[in-house]
Amino acid sequence: MMYKTKDLFSLEHSLAGEYLREFEYPWQALAGIKSYIQTLGPKLEGYREVSPQVWVHETAVIAPTAFLGAPCIIGPGTEVRHCAFIRGSALVGANCVVGNSVELKNVILFDNVQTPHYNYVGDSILGYKSHMGAGSITSNVKSDKTDVVVKSGKEKIETGLRKMGAMLGDHVEVGCNSVLNPGTVIGPNSNVYPVSCVRGVIPADSVFKDKDHVVLKKKDRD
Protein backbone atom coordinates (compact mmCIF):
# COMPACT_ATOMS: atom_id res chain seq x y z
CA MET A 1 0.00 0.00 0.00
CA MET A 2 1.09 3.58 -0.65
CA TYR A 3 1.39 5.52 2.57
CA LYS A 4 5.07 6.41 2.84
CA THR A 5 6.36 9.89 2.11
CA LYS A 6 8.45 8.81 -0.87
CA ASP A 7 5.47 7.07 -2.46
CA LEU A 8 2.96 9.90 -2.06
CA PHE A 9 4.78 13.06 -3.07
CA SER A 10 7.08 14.59 -5.67
CA LEU A 11 9.21 16.38 -3.10
CA GLU A 12 10.72 18.82 -5.59
CA HIS A 13 7.33 20.55 -5.76
CA SER A 14 7.43 22.03 -2.26
CA LEU A 15 9.63 24.28 -0.15
CA ALA A 16 9.17 21.59 2.48
CA GLY A 17 10.65 18.87 0.25
CA GLU A 18 13.91 18.48 2.14
CA TYR A 19 12.09 18.62 5.46
CA LEU A 20 9.64 15.91 4.44
CA ARG A 21 12.45 13.73 3.16
CA GLU A 22 13.47 13.19 6.79
CA PHE A 23 10.31 11.22 7.57
CA GLU A 24 9.30 7.70 6.57
CA TYR A 25 5.62 8.52 7.06
CA PRO A 26 4.34 12.00 6.19
CA TRP A 27 2.23 12.43 9.32
CA GLN A 28 5.47 12.35 11.33
CA ALA A 29 6.18 15.80 9.87
CA LEU A 30 3.05 17.44 11.30
CA ALA A 31 4.52 18.22 14.71
CA GLY A 32 7.38 20.24 13.24
CA ILE A 33 5.60 22.34 10.60
CA LYS A 34 5.45 25.44 12.80
CA SER A 35 9.14 25.46 13.69
CA TYR A 36 10.14 24.64 10.10
CA ILE A 37 8.23 27.67 8.80
CA GLN A 38 9.79 29.89 11.45
CA THR A 39 13.27 28.74 10.41
CA LEU A 40 12.67 28.88 6.65
CA GLY A 41 10.79 32.17 6.39
CA PRO A 42 13.65 34.59 7.10
CA LYS A 43 15.84 32.85 4.49
CA LEU A 44 13.42 33.23 1.59
CA GLU A 45 14.11 35.61 -1.28
CA GLY A 46 11.35 37.44 -3.09
CA TYR A 47 9.06 37.30 -0.06
CA ARG A 48 7.82 40.15 2.16
CA GLU A 49 7.24 39.72 5.88
CA VAL A 50 3.85 41.45 5.89
CA SER A 51 3.42 40.90 9.63
CA PRO A 52 5.55 39.06 12.20
CA GLN A 53 6.33 35.54 10.89
CA VAL A 54 4.01 35.89 7.89
CA TRP A 55 5.97 35.70 4.63
CA VAL A 56 4.15 36.38 1.35
CA HIS A 57 5.77 36.16 -2.06
CA GLU A 58 5.71 39.41 -4.00
CA THR A 59 3.66 37.79 -6.80
CA ALA A 60 1.00 36.30 -4.51
CA VAL A 61 -2.45 37.90 -4.47
CA ILE A 62 -4.08 38.27 -1.06
CA ALA A 63 -7.67 39.46 -0.71
CA PRO A 64 -8.13 42.30 1.79
CA THR A 65 -10.57 40.21 3.84
CA ALA A 66 -8.25 37.20 4.17
CA PHE A 67 -6.63 36.47 7.54
CA LEU A 68 -3.02 35.27 7.57
CA GLY A 69 -2.08 33.89 10.97
CA ALA A 70 1.51 33.39 12.02
CA PRO A 71 3.59 31.58 11.16
CA CYS A 72 2.82 31.02 7.49
CA ILE A 73 4.38 31.17 4.06
CA ILE A 74 2.41 32.02 0.91
CA GLY A 75 4.20 31.06 -2.31
CA PRO A 76 4.60 32.76 -5.68
CA GLY A 77 1.54 33.12 -7.88
CA THR A 78 -0.77 31.87 -5.13
CA GLU A 79 -4.19 33.44 -4.69
CA VAL A 80 -5.73 33.74 -1.24
CA ARG A 81 -9.34 34.76 -1.76
CA HIS A 82 -11.92 36.64 0.28
CA CYS A 83 -12.57 35.51 3.84
CA ALA A 84 -9.94 32.79 3.78
CA PHE A 85 -8.78 32.00 7.33
CA ILE A 86 -5.21 30.78 7.63
CA ARG A 87 -4.92 30.06 11.34
CA GLY A 88 -1.17 29.52 11.25
CA SER A 89 1.50 26.88 10.72
CA ALA A 90 0.61 26.80 7.03
CA LEU A 91 3.16 26.43 4.25
CA VAL A 92 1.33 27.16 1.00
CA GLY A 93 3.26 26.50 -2.20
CA ALA A 94 3.43 28.17 -5.59
CA ASN A 95 0.37 28.75 -7.80
CA CYS A 96 -2.10 27.52 -5.21
CA VAL A 97 -5.67 28.63 -4.60
CA VAL A 98 -6.92 29.17 -1.06
CA GLY A 99 -10.52 30.08 -1.69
CA ASN A 100 -13.39 31.88 -0.08
CA SER A 101 -14.14 30.79 3.48
CA VAL A 102 -11.37 28.18 3.40
CA GLU A 103 -9.65 27.45 6.72
CA LEU A 104 -6.09 26.10 6.93
CA LYS A 105 -4.30 25.00 10.09
CA ASN A 106 -0.98 23.15 10.49
CA VAL A 107 -0.69 22.13 6.86
CA ILE A 108 1.67 21.81 3.94
CA LEU A 109 0.18 22.52 0.52
CA PHE A 110 2.47 21.51 -2.32
CA ASP A 111 2.65 23.65 -5.46
CA ASN A 112 -0.49 23.97 -7.60
CA VAL A 113 -2.84 22.73 -4.88
CA GLN A 114 -6.42 24.00 -5.03
CA THR A 115 -8.68 24.39 -2.00
CA PRO A 116 -11.06 26.81 -3.69
CA HIS A 117 -14.42 26.78 -1.89
CA TYR A 118 -15.50 26.25 1.73
CA ASN A 119 -12.81 23.73 2.65
CA TYR A 120 -11.35 22.93 6.06
CA VAL A 121 -7.85 21.47 5.90
CA GLY A 122 -6.19 20.81 9.23
CA ASP A 123 -3.14 18.75 10.29
CA SER A 124 -2.82 17.53 6.71
CA ILE A 125 -0.46 17.47 3.74
CA LEU A 126 -1.77 17.94 0.20
CA GLY A 127 0.47 16.79 -2.65
CA TYR A 128 1.33 18.43 -5.95
CA LYS A 129 -1.71 19.44 -8.03
CA SER A 130 -4.18 17.88 -5.61
CA HIS A 131 -7.65 19.41 -5.52
CA MET A 132 -10.35 19.60 -2.87
CA GLY A 133 -13.84 19.97 -4.33
CA ALA A 134 -16.24 22.53 -2.90
CA GLY A 135 -17.23 21.79 0.68
CA SER A 136 -14.85 18.86 1.12
CA ILE A 137 -13.00 18.79 4.44
CA THR A 138 -10.40 16.93 6.44
CA SER A 139 -11.62 15.73 9.83
CA ASN A 140 -8.60 15.76 12.11
CA VAL A 141 -9.85 14.56 15.52
CA LYS A 142 -11.62 11.29 16.34
CA SER A 143 -14.94 11.58 18.15
CA ASP A 144 -13.55 9.68 21.15
CA LYS A 145 -10.42 11.90 21.17
CA THR A 146 -8.05 8.91 21.10
CA ASP A 147 -4.90 8.80 18.96
CA VAL A 148 -5.35 8.42 15.22
CA VAL A 149 -4.52 5.05 13.67
CA VAL A 150 -3.80 4.67 9.96
CA LYS A 151 -5.50 1.50 8.72
CA SER A 152 -4.68 -0.38 5.55
CA GLY A 153 -6.66 -3.60 5.38
CA LYS A 154 -5.67 -5.56 8.48
CA GLU A 155 -2.55 -3.46 9.01
CA LYS A 156 -2.71 -0.73 11.64
CA ILE A 157 -0.10 1.96 12.15
CA GLU A 158 -0.18 3.84 15.43
CA THR A 159 0.57 7.51 14.72
CA GLY A 160 0.73 8.69 18.33
CA LEU A 161 -1.16 11.79 17.19
CA ARG A 162 -4.44 13.01 18.60
CA LYS A 163 -4.80 15.31 15.60
CA MET A 164 -4.21 14.10 12.06
CA GLY A 165 -6.31 14.89 9.03
CA ALA A 166 -5.47 13.50 5.60
CA MET A 167 -2.42 12.87 3.46
CA LEU A 168 -3.22 13.38 -0.24
CA GLY A 169 -0.70 12.20 -2.81
CA ASP A 170 0.08 14.09 -6.00
CA HIS A 171 -2.81 14.68 -8.43
CA VAL A 172 -5.55 13.54 -6.05
CA GLU A 173 -9.08 14.77 -6.81
CA VAL A 174 -11.54 14.93 -3.93
CA GLY A 175 -15.21 15.32 -4.88
CA CYS A 176 -17.49 18.01 -3.50
CA ASN A 177 -18.83 17.71 0.06
CA SER A 178 -16.64 14.73 0.92
CA VAL A 179 -15.29 14.08 4.41
CA LEU A 180 -11.80 12.65 4.81
CA ASN A 181 -11.77 11.06 8.25
CA PRO A 182 -8.78 11.19 10.63
CA GLY A 183 -5.90 9.11 9.31
CA THR A 184 -7.01 9.03 5.67
CA VAL A 185 -4.19 8.48 3.15
CA ILE A 186 -4.95 8.69 -0.58
CA GLY A 187 -2.37 7.52 -3.10
CA PRO A 188 -1.34 9.62 -6.11
CA ASN A 189 -3.63 10.03 -9.12
CA SER A 190 -6.72 8.80 -7.29
CA ASN A 191 -10.24 10.25 -7.37
CA VAL A 192 -12.88 10.40 -4.67
CA TYR A 193 -16.54 10.54 -5.65
CA PRO A 194 -18.55 13.52 -4.39
CA VAL A 195 -20.30 13.22 -1.01
CA SER A 196 -17.98 10.42 0.10
CA CYS A 197 -16.97 9.42 3.62
CA VAL A 198 -13.39 8.21 3.35
CA ARG A 199 -11.12 6.53 5.89
CA GLY A 200 -8.01 4.37 5.77
CA VAL A 201 -5.54 4.00 2.92
CA ILE A 202 -6.77 4.35 -0.67
CA PRO A 203 -4.36 2.94 -3.29
CA ALA A 204 -2.79 5.02 -6.02
CA ASP A 205 -4.54 5.24 -9.40
CA SER A 206 -7.89 4.36 -7.86
CA VAL A 207 -11.45 5.61 -7.87
CA PHE A 208 -13.17 5.68 -4.48
CA LYS A 209 -16.90 5.25 -5.05
CA ASP A 210 -17.75 4.13 -1.50
CA LYS A 211 -16.06 2.02 1.16
CA ASP A 212 -17.01 -1.20 -0.59
CA HIS A 213 -16.21 -0.04 -4.11
CA VAL A 214 -12.66 1.16 -4.66
CA VAL A 215 -11.56 0.32 -8.20
CA LEU A 216 -8.33 0.76 -10.10
CA LYS A 217 -8.47 3.18 -13.01
CA LYS A 218 -8.46 1.66 -16.46
CA LYS A 219 -5.18 2.07 -18.29
CA ASP A 220 -5.27 4.02 -21.54
CA ARG A 221 -5.19 1.70 -24.50
CA ASP A 222 -3.25 2.22 -27.72
UniProtKB/TrEMBL annotation:
Q: What is this protein called?
A: Glucose-1-phosphate thymidylyltransferase
- Any one GO molecular function term: acyltransferase activity
Which InterPro entries does the record associate with it? GlmU-like, GMPPB_C, Trimer_LpxA-like_sf
Span of the signal peptide: none
Q: Does the keyword Acyltransferase apply?
A: yes
Transferase among keywords = yes
Q: Which UniProt keywords apply?
A: Acyltransferase, Transferase
- What are the Mannose-1-phosphate guanyltransferase C-terminal domain coordinates in residue numbering? 80-190
Instruction: Name the source organism.
Output: Faecalibaculum rodentium
Return the Pfam families for the record: GMPPB_C
